[in-house]
Amino acid sequence: HYRKTMITRIQTLTYLDDRPVFENEKRCALAWLRGGAQAEKEERRRIQEEKAENERRNYLAMRSLLAGGEDNGNMTDGAETANESDVDELYAAAGVGGENSVTQERLVDLQ
Q1: What is the mean pLDDT of the segment spanning 69-89?
Q2: Which of 27-31, 58-62, 88-92 has the least mean pLDDT?
Q3: Where are the alpha helices (DSSP H) in the chain?
Q4: Could you tell me the maximum CA-CA distance found in the chain, to the nearest angstrom?
Q5: How far apart (Å, rounded) are the C-alpha atoms in residues 33 and 40?
Q6: Are 86 and 64 contacting, i.e. CB atoms less than 8 angstroms apart?
Q7: On the chain, which terminus has fewer CB atoms closer than 10 Å, C or N?
Q8: Confidence (pLDDT) at 83
Q9: Residue 16: beta bridge partners?
């Protein structure tokens, strides 16, 4: 518990014992301080959900761009209105595909 204790007591800490202290680790340590292991576990779950939602939004924005979406740089959630057959044609033309394990939606290899 040494690392968690130090992280919670020194809010500005960026490194401890030659390892960086990331924001997610700070969030988990603070949750642990408030409610023990169960609170820390819940915080880790929330962090994972936030990450998955962010990845989903990024995917939908890219999908919208590939489907001929907004050209003005405005990334809105208008990706849901993209025509599925147009997106399928883009996948086929690019010869790529796959699925996002979180959202179960198709992915495009941008390399």
Answers
A1: 52
A2: 88-92
A3: 2-9, 23-66, 84-94
A4: 55
A5: 8
A6: no
A7: C
A8: 53
A9: 19
Q: What whole-number distance in Å separates Cα of residue 71 and Cα of residue 78?
A: 12
Strands 19-20 and 15-16: antiparallel
How far from each other are the two terminal CA atoms of the chain, in whole angstroms? 43
Q: Which two tokens stand for residue 32?
A: 């642990």
Q: Is the dihedral of CA 33, 36, 40, 42 positive or negative?
A: negative
Tokens of 37: 């292991």
Q: pTM of the prediction? A: 0.56
Amino acid at 44: R
| Nearest CA among 85, 90, 37 for reference residue 65 | 90
DSSP string across 76-88: -SGGGGS-HHHHH
SS3 16: strand
At residue 10, the pLDDT reads 92
d(CA 8, CA 28) in angstroms, rounded, equals: 10
pLDDT at 45: 95
d(CA 44, CA 88): 35
